[in-house]
Amino acid sequence: MSINEKIKDLNILIIGAGPAGLSLARLLQQEKGCKNVIVVERDVDRNTRIGGSSLDLHESTGLRFIKRANLFEDFKNICRPEGESITIANKDGKVILRKPHLKINSKKPEIDRGDLRRLLIDSLLPDTILWNHHFISLEEQPLDGTTIVTFKNGTSIKADLVIGADGANSKIRPYVNDISLKYSGITLIEFEIENPKQVCPEIYDLVDNGLFYALSDEKGFIVQLKGDGNLIIYLSCKRDENWIKESGFDFKKKEFKEIKEFIKNNVLSDWSDIYKNLLDNAVEPFITRPLYSIPFEPMIEWKSKSNITLIGDSAHTIVPYAGKGINEGMADSCDLIDCLFEVDNEEKEFNLHKRLNKYESLMHQRILEAGNDSNDAKEIVHDNNACNLLVDRFLGSYKYIKSLIPFYTYFINSLTDSFGYSI
Predict the structure, then answer these.
(1) 315 and 16 in contact (C-beta within 8 Å)?
(2) 144: which residues sit within 8 A by CB, 6+ positions away?
(3) Which residues does the UniProt record annotate as the domain FAD-binding (predicted)?
(4) Of 77, 162, 385, 387, which is least surrounded by CB within 10 A?
(5) Order of strands, edge to edge, in the sheet holding 156-159?
(6) Concatenated DSSP letters for 287-337?
(7) What's the pLDDT tens digit per position in 330-388?
């Protein structure tokens, strides 16, 4: 029996219907023809609201998967190349950089998380995903090498290969390694604004369909326009891990108006009113998100000891400031597929565990670079000189002509509108 046939015969269980898990399922089914693939997800159904900002897919990771999975044409219909525009301002509202998107060179198109999830779900065979399956435990069977996974709804599934794709707070990770996430030093306060063009037109114009940074004093706003027309806003603060608790101000027990006043008085006291206006127009709720990451100094490399491995945030939780997380999870799916189906003429007997370890080694090499880049971006955003450092990061040697960039971009875009363009 060939390697392909042996793997196609495996019962493969993916725990978690996030981008990484769904990407892996797509490649197993569409590219390799695997029929025994199950994705389990604790959400009740596919209509569960997906929160968070939109994300850009990177050419060497996320877009590489999209093209390999034959989803590029569908992706183009729902992505937003204009989401690449960037504006940077300080706490007084002074604009430091305005960088409109360049249509002809769109390499990181934006897509809402919900749209991406729907694209991936719709690409799978019917009944691939089992909803309302909340993981409880797993038990390895030494006699036949399988694993029995049990769920809160009373069901259990027997699998030859288990992939944990259940996010940063992974329940599968402890079965694979003993890594504990480390607090990054940053806490986010997340909220949204409806009808931003009417209620905060100045910020809406600065966002320009893309990303707006307002940075000073080791904190800042990161603002983005979603596909539904809302603004999603992250107030990113360098704070102790238990900042909210130790402040004596429990967000869950306070009125929404009280929370707004607390943030304005304790975090943004000397910031321009245009930013305080964002809080005034916020819709409930405020969500606090302390950010955690796997350790990178040094990075701990691990190898699974059984037929269980990890992909996505389960394997490598990193901070979000370079937009690498979901992209790297999609790259994991490509690397894992390549290692599983690699032809090894020296392999006398099919060794699944050896193939998983090769994937893990490749993943660690890639994630070390992505994690360090993400941590560097985090430090820049929360530096006292954040605006200038971020301009350096985005423009490099072109920073000296930053004032000319909007005029150049608008001119090139007018030409591409006349002659057409594509991502």
Answers:
(1) no
(2) none
(3) 10-355
(4) 77
(5) 135-141, 146-151, 156-159
(6) EEEEEEE--BTTB-----SSSEEE-THHHH---STTS-HHHHHHHHHHHHH
(7) 999 999 999 999 987 777 788 899 999 999 999 999 999 999 999 999 999 999 999 99
The string of pLDDT tens digits covering residues 48-84 is 877 777 888 999 999 999 999 999 999 999 988 766 7
- For residues 219 and 212, give the distance between their C-alpha atoms in angstroms, rounded to a whole number: 14
Residue with the two structure tokens 């565990």: 353
> What residues contact residue 82 under an 8 Å CB cut-off, 6+ apart?
101, 103, 110, 209, 210
Cα–Cα dist 68/61, whole Å: 11
Helices (H) and strands (E) in the chain, counts: 15, 17
Q: Collapsing DSSP states into helix, strand and coil, what is residue 339?
A: helix
Break the chain into its structural domains and give their ranges.
3-54+113-180+296-381, 182-293
CB 381 within 8 A of CB 393: no
Q: Which amino acid is at 360?
A: E
Contact present, 264 and 279 (Cβ < 8 Å): yes
Question: What is 3-54+113-180+296-381's CATH topology?
Answer: FAD/NAD(P)-binding domain (3.50.50)
Q: Are 39 and 121 in contact (CB under 8 A)?
A: no
Query: Measured between alpha carbons, how far is 37 from 263 in angstroms, rounded to an integer?
Result: 47
The yes-or-no answer to whether 3-54+113-180+296-381 and 182-293 have a common fold is no
90: its two tokens: 């300080």
Tell me how far apart the alpha carbons of residues 197 and 227 are, in angstroms, rounded to a whole number.
14
Q: Which residue is listed with tokens 């992706």?
A: 75
Token code pair at residue 299:
């990075």
Tokens of 179: 């890594």
CATH of region 182-293: 3.30.9.60
Other C-beta atoms within 10 Å of 158: how many? Answer: 12
Query: DSSP code of 237?
Result: E
Residue 170 burial by CB count (10 A; 0-12/13-18/19+): exposed, middle or buried?
Answer: buried
The Cβ of residue 194 has, within 10 Å, a number of other Cβ atoms equal to 13
Q: Are strands 86-89 and 211-216 parallel, antiparallel or unpaired?
A: parallel
Amino acid 419: pLDDT: 47
Token duo for residue 250: 């429990």
Contacts for 282 with CB less than 8 Å, ≥ 6 apart: 191, 192, 193, 233, 256, 260
